[in-house]
């Protein structure tokens, strides 16, 4: 059974070809038949002419010579033609000189009426020919010749009438054959038209209509309608095309659903990550605004429990010996803390001792995960996560979270808990510094230093917040790769901020004495180079050391560092110059570059003076110094800080480096 569209169309075309060939054959056959019939009719008509000629010769008064020979030739032609008309065969045909000697083959006459008429003619012809021969053989002018001529004249009309009848019968017979051929041609034409109509209907049903349905289905798919199936089915190439298109629709629908599910999961992850980052920012703000360690630590454990979807969170600190840890804050159900003090010796086992020994966050499931946090109820240790607390590289404690579900996934939570632990470490050290500041005699000076710490942290956290907002914006636009880069930069910025804070804390812990400006500049240069700034060129014109008290040293350091930070961020220059000199009883430090520069006057007139410049001006005023900023777009920037010289010692100046 033929199933393919091409096979069915091929059959229709083959049938149509056969009809065309048959029609051509019938037409050629009709032409050939008509030519033969015309020849027969012409020969039959010639028989009548031969009779008339022979009759005229017989009635001629002079029946000799050429006339007799012509009559004899005509009699032979009539006799052979009559036999050929009756029985078929070859007969001479030549009406003029061009056709002389031509012979044609006549078919056997099968029509009974024509044969009967030809037989009657043959009988009359025999009598006519015998009388013609008698007239030709009788003496001229004799009674016998006259009687024979009279007999020829008497038989000739009947013979001529019979020949006319035969001609009409041959004409009718020919017309009947042509009529049958026309009927066959009409039948072939009708069959051809029917076949064309069938081909049209077949092509419409098997090609045009299915293609229209496929077009509609393709348009629906293009508009996003993937629920409605493709209505084309069945055998043949079009059916295969419909099945293929429907399979593609099903696959696209499945891909779209998977994409929507992935998008939904991504949105949930983004929302959760945004919530985590916002919580980190909130904790950082609390660090800068609160000095009560209990409040900050309680906030840290509460945020850790909420963000990590844990059931319990605990914050523990090591004692002075480093062998024991005490729970300082926790969030969770009552009675979840089974003991307040636990051992952190390696041999005691558990995640917390392992974290304290390795210095990085660890989740349960690690090969060193044994007994978890010893202070938490074992029921909540089925799944737990611990991060270390560090101050200046020293382990001071651990932040623990736990859950009763052993299948809890902490894959994306290790970094978050580590950052929360870092925030807790900073909060603790900040509180310690505050208590230390309260115990110092120079309370006002320590409060100013604390304000400086606060300002530095605020700038760092503001930059971090800007990166977090930028990250959220990139995520909302679907730029996941750029968002990850922004998060990494935010992470590095937070680590740098924590390092700066720890350096400030370390300076405060060792502060109280005087330092020299030269040492301070070398220290700034070393830090600037370590953080990847442009090439640092320093020029010190003074041999004698310039002493600075702690407040002045802190202010000068903050102002110079802010100027160098602006060079690194905005100047786009490969080199920065820092110079030191005395001039007219004042000490002058200059930071200059050949970078892009800006227009300070335009910022002042527009009321948009850069926030960093405002802070630098305020700090200069606080330490009794004067700050000048000179810059033009495209010509670089020069920041000049000067203050009255207080003391001078004649000690060797520039330290060896």
UniProtKB/TrEMBL annotation:
Keywords: ATP-binding, Kinase, Membrane, Nucleotide-binding, Phosphoprotein, Transferase, Transmembrane, Transmembrane helix, Two-component regulatory system. GO terms for molecular function: ATP binding; phosphorelay sensor kinase activity; protein dimerization activity. Residues 205-257 form the HAMP domain. It catalyses: ATP + protein L-histidine = ADP + protein N-phospho-L-histidine. InterPro entries: GAF (IPR003018), GAF-like_dom_sf (IPR029016), HAMP_dom (IPR003660), HATPase_C_sf (IPR036890), HATPase_dom (IPR003594), NarX-like_N (IPR029095), Sensor_HK_TwoCompSys (IPR050482), Sig_transdc_His_kin_sub3_dim/P (IPR011712). Its main location: membrane. Signal peptide: none annotated. The keyword Transferase applies. CDD domains: HAMP (cd06225), HATPase_UhpB-NarQ-NarX-like (cd16917). It is an enzyme of class 2 (transferase). GO terms for cellular component: membrane. The chain crosses the membrane at residues 6-28, 184-202. It is a multi-pass membrane protein. It holds the Pfam family HATPase_c. This is histidine kinase. It comes from Tectimicrobiota bacterium.
């Amino acid at each position: 059974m033929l199933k393919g569209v091409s096979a069915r169309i091929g059959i229709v075309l083959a049938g149509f070809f056969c009809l065309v060939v048959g029609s051509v054959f019938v037409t050629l056959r009709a032409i050939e038949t008509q030519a033969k019939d015309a020849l027969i009719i012409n020969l039959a008509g010639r028989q009548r002419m031969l009779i008339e000629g022979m009759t005229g010769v017989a009635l001629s008064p002079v029946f000799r010579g050429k006339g007799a020979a012509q009559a004899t030739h005509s009699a032979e032609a009539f006799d052979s033609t009559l036999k050929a008309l009756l029985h078929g065969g070859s007969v001479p045909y030549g009406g003029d000189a061009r056709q002389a000697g031509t012979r044609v083959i006549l078919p056997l006459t099968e029509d009974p009426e024509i044969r009967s008429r030809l037989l009657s003619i043959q009988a009359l012809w025999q009598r006519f020919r015998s009388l013609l021969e008698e007239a030709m053989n009788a003496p001229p002018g004799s009674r016998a010749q006259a009687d024979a001529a009279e007999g020829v004249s008497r038989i000739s009309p009947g013979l001529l009438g019979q020949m006319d009848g035969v001609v009409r019968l041959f004409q009718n017979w020919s017309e009947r054959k042509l009529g049958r051929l026309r009927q066959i041609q009409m039948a072939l034409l009708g069959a051809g038209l029917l076949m064309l109509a069938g081909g049209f209907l077949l092509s419409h049903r098997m090609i045009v209509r299915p293609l229209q349905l496929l077009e509609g289905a393709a348009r629906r798919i293009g508009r996003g309608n993937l629920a409605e199936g493709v209505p084309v089915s069945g055998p043949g190439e079009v059916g295969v095309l419909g099945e293929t298109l429907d399979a593609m629709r099903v696959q696209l629908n499945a891909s779209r659903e998977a994409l929507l599910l992935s998008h939904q999961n991504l949105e949930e992850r983004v929302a959760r990550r945004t919530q985590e980052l916002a919580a980190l920012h909130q904790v950082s703000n609390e660090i800068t605004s609160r000095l009560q360690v209990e409040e900050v630590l309680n906030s840290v454990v509460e945020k850790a429990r909420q963000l990590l979807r844990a059931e319990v969170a605990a914050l523990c600190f090591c004692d002075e010996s480093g062998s024991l840890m005490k729970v300082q804050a926790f969030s969770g159900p009552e009675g979840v803390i089974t003991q307040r003090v636990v051992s952190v010796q390696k041999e005691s086992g558990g995640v917390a001792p392992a974290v304290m020994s390795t210095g990085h966050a660890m989740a349960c499931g690690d090969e060193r995960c044994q007994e978890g946090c010893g202070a938490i109820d074992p029921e909540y240790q089925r799944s737990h996560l611990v991060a270390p607390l560090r101050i200046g590289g020293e382990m001071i404690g651990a932040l623990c979270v736990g859950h009763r579900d052993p299948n809890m996934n902490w894959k994306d939570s290790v970094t978050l808990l580590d950052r929360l632990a870092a925030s807790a470490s900073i909060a603790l050290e900040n509180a310690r510094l505050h208590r230390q500041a309260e115990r110092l005699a120079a309370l006002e000076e320590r409060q100013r230093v604390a304000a400086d710490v606060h300002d530095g942290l605020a700038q760092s956290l503001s930059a971090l917040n800007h990166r977090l907002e930028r990250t959220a914006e990139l995520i909302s636009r679907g730029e996941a790769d750029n968002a990850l880069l922004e998060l990494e930069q935010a992470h590095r910025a937070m680590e740098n901020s924590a390092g700066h804070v720890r350096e400030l804390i370390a300076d405060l812990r060792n502060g109280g004495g005087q330092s020299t400006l030269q040492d301070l500049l070398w220290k700034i240069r070393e830090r600037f180079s370590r953080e990847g700034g442009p090439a640092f060129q320093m020029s010190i014109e003074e041999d004698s050391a310039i002493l600075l008290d702690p407040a002045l040293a802190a202010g000068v350091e903050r102002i110079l560092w802010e100027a160098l930070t602006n060079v690194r961020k905005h100047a786009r220059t490969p080199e920065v110059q820092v110079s030191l000199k005395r001039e007219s009883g004042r000490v002058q430090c200059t930071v200059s570059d050949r970078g892009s520069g800006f227009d300070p006057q335009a910022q002042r007139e527009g009321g948009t003076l850069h926030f960093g410049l405002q802070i630098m001006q305020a700090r200069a005023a606080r330490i009794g110094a004067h700050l000048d900023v000179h810059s033009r777009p495209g010509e670089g920037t020069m920041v000049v800080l000067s203050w009255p010289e207080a003391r001078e010692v004649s000690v060797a100046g520039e330290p060896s480096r």
